[in-house]
Design a protein that fits this description.
By secondary structure, the protein is of the alpha+beta class. It has 7 helices and 9 strands; from the N terminus they run E-H-E-H-E-H-E-E-E-H-E-E-E-H-H-H. It has a single domain (8-245), classed as VTC, catalytic tunnel domain (mRNA Triphosphatase Cet1, Chain A, Alpha-Beta Barrel), CATH 3.20.100.
Length: 247
Amino acid sequence: MLNQPASVQERYELKFLVSSEAIAPISRFIEKYCSMDPYSVEAPGHFYTSNNLYLDNRSFQLYQKNASAGPFSFNMRVRSYGETLQVPCYFEIKYKVRDFVRKKRSRVLAKDWMGLFSSDDFLLESDVALKKNLEEFIFLSRSYSCGPVLNVQYQRKAYMALGEGYARVNFDKELRYQKNNEWNFKTDVLSDPDDQVILELKYEKKMPLWMTALIHEFGLTPAVGGKYGKLLPSWTEDGVSSGDLFK
């Protein structure tokens, strides 16, 4: 699934919190301008599973950059799709300047992908651009002393705009998370699903008029921060400390 990644994606991103009851009417609205992503078409109920392993360091420096509401931040994650946690895995860096995002993505086909962080001789992606992105991911993780901190799993339904130009709409629901300081996708003790739905609007350069109409039609107000920024404080407040993560 999803095995043809673009090496670099540049776009604007807006996120909104909506209720599960809003998914159907918003879907009907955007289906006048978008077609469903092929992977959503094939998935049961049109939602497919996304598994994400977020990285940070002992002081949660990447989270702090995001939470400070400064003009620049970035996060790092390893992503896999499907209930069976299948390969390939995708290594992603998301650089953010306010609402503008530059995402660098690479792909690893090997089941022992965690070997990237213990060996410099690991077989890398043959595509030059993807290989450079992977090397940048490894460089940043070592420079910032980052390791795994949090697994996040959710169900996604995705749409792509009809016609020319890039525009995308995602519904992400049933967010579940789990503390994790190992290089794997633990799913044994995930939290209960979050009852909120994250609606994402993504576009290049200029927001399509239909997106503007969507925001006004449903009275949407942009949410602050991404999934990592939303979920990390919810379990640090429950007593999880950086010392617990880096034993």
